[in-house]
Amino acid sequence: MKVGFVAIVGRPNAGKSTLINSIIGDKVAIVSDKAHTTRNNIQGIYNDNESQIVFIDTPGIHKPINKLSTYMNKQSYYSLSDADIILFMIDSNEKFGKGDNFILEKIKKENKPIFLILNKVDKIKKDSLFKMIEEYNKLYNFNEIIPISALKNDNINDLIKTIKRYLSEGDAFYSNDYYTDKSINFMVSELVREKVLNLTNEEVPHAVTCITEKYEDNGSSIHLNILIIVEREGLKKILVGHNGSMIKKIGIEAREDIEKLVLKKVYLELFVKVIKNWKEKEKYLIEFGFKDNDE
Ligand SMILES: Nc1nc2c(ncn2[C@@H]2O[C@H](COP(=O)(O)OP(=O)(O)OP(=O)(O)O)[C@@H](O)[C@H]2O)c(=O)[nH]1
Ligand SMILES: [Mg+2]
Question: How many A from CA of 160 to the centre of ligand 1?
């Protein structure tokens, strides 16, 4: 069978996580309209009767402003060394900017096939797409330029077909009932973080970390304690909301998604804690298996 690793890289908000979800057909990675949603590399494993393709969703590459963003960029760079093919995703509604150039220079050095993925074509006119492809052909000798809409599932089959042409024969890496490398503890905490991103405004999301402290499976139901860590008292106030209204909303929406994932009744308790110091937060992440000690 055809096997290989495919890294999806690009600027924040390009639609990388949306693509991995539409390829896998399940929610592997959380999605939001805010930049910097993805923080860790996440594998989504695509299986069919002639191939196994391991897609790696990565954090959007950006100018680092703090330790978290340096960590996130590093995650994306790691994915490049594992990859057999690099999907460089851009939002086709935006100009190819400095940030994109930076990424292109970086991935060129890998000497691997690079596909330029023009995403969000559902928002542009067909004739401008034609011109756009011509322009990008002049910019660099991409192995492929493929327009898609990750959101509308447009041209995804063609993308998979093309990827297969570049992969080698080999044995599967994972058993074929696997669809991600992430633990259930990680996935449920991410679903909570997704609700935080979607329900709050710009200032909150970047400073939020979610950790599963307890995951107890009682057979017919699952009991979860998830800790939401923020960096300031003010943010805790926003997250809790007036009379606890915001945290309640986050809990209700997250529980619905978690139940869809685990297919059992879920009892979810959320706790908000203020931790100002990155080192202290890191200790939590390591303790609950959310970050390796040597990263
Ligand atoms: N119209 C349209 N919107 C899309 C498409 N793909 C993604 N989006 C939207 O773009 C936003 C960002 O999507 P994500 O998948 O979270 O983007 P990302 O590249 O993973 O972002 P980071 O994790 O922050 O790097 C969301 O609001 C998506 O719904 C698309 O094909 N068409
Ligand atoms: Mg993402």
Answer: 19
